[in-house]
Amino acid sequence: MFGEPGDAQQKRPKQSWLLCSAVVLVWLVTSSAHAQTDDQLSLGEAISHAIARNPDLPIFDLRIRALDGRRMTASQLPAYELGLETEGIAGSGDQGVDTAEYTLSLSSILEMGGKRQARIGIVDAEYDLVEAERRADILDLLGRVTQTFISTLAIQEKIRVAAEAVDIAETAYETVKRRAQQGAAPEADVLRAKAALAEARIELANLTTNYQVQKANLAANWGEMSANYSRLHGDLFRFEATASFDNLFERIANNPNIEVFANEQRVREAEVQLAESLADSDIRWAIGARRPEATNDFAVVASASIPLFSGKRNRGQLRSALAAQEEVLYRKDNALLRLRARLFEAYQTRQQYLEAFRAMNKQIIPDLTEALRLTREGYERGRYSYLEWNAAQADLLSARHSLIETASSILLNQALIEQLTGQPLEAQ
């Protein structure tokens, strides 16, 4: 499956980039294709920055380099040993250097049962595991970037609404003040309108501050201390159609977190193979030459030895490896159950918010907009009080904020569905 360790490094990054391009939210990437200015940031650009410069991702390159070293070690044959043995160099009688015997030998181990290939197999499986973990981390990073982007885009939309609210409050204040000067409104209404204008400006200032914080949080995903853009480019009110829940659940197998279990399972299988290979006893051999000093003759010597009962002594390690292999299956099944529960919650929540959004957008917002128009006209004619006019303004503003929150919730759950399935909704 693998050649030299360098081959593995060259093949891996391509898989990660394919995953990245597959899970980008279609609704924002499409919108980012339109003309932009240099100070705007799209979701596609945010994701590209995060993948290219996120400080956590280089760790996987270091892990691959470590595996390269382990593979080099695992592929080595048993070491050769050079030995020198001396007999009769000292003792009683005529023992001494002139009567000693010297044996020079070369020895090593002949591995049996495919131990070398089993060691290499573990490292090769760990290459796949590290890459699966890399893809899972990239998917989590995409989820964080997308969620932060959506939340920041929602604040950006709220700022627009809040700025309009300030304009409305300024107009209302001027209108009430003019009517008070004409004797058609009490001075208390002027104070209420002035206070409402101050509250609208405070809300706008709070949102602006929160917006700057969120932009910095987004930029932190690619290692920047502050945002070098002024606005986000995207459509908060564009949603993709979704397939049925059963169809979405079938695609959970594409989630890189599930691939991690599949690759971990292969690592455990390789460990079982290594444990089984250890049951075959290795043969220690030696060959050399013996030279008695007394006669100056040479003799070839050879030896071989094999440990007994290796299979029995290895049962504990084999049992441990088999248990670890079975454990992965249980953890994978448990992970699938948790993913299904999260997918079901995200799917149902998104459907609920979609219905709420349609009702707000088609009925509630238009009705409240018309009610505000009629109330304002009625106030200027003396039919409604300022409190009624102000209440109509507050109702419409609250509804527009709820519309933004609802749209944000739809997109956040859409992003979660795409993260869980590993595919954009449009592709499903």
UniProtKB/TrEMBL annotation:
GO cellular component, as recorded: membrane
Subcellular location: Cell outer membrane
MF (Gene Ontology): efflux transmembrane transporter activity
Annotated Pfam families: OEP (PF02321)
Keyword presence, Ribosomal protein: no
InterPro entries in UniProt: MdtP/NodT-like (IPR010131), OMP_efflux (IPR003423)
Official protein name in the record: TolC family protein
Coiled coil feature spans: 190-217
Family: Belongs to the outer membrane factor (OMF) (TC 1.B.17) family.
Keywords: Cell outer membrane, Coiled coil, Lipoprotein, Membrane, Palmitate, Signal, Transmembrane, Transmembrane beta strand
Lineage: Bacteria, Pseudomonadati, Pseudomonadota, Gammaproteobacteria, Pseudomonadales
Chief site of localization: membrane
Signal peptide: 1-35
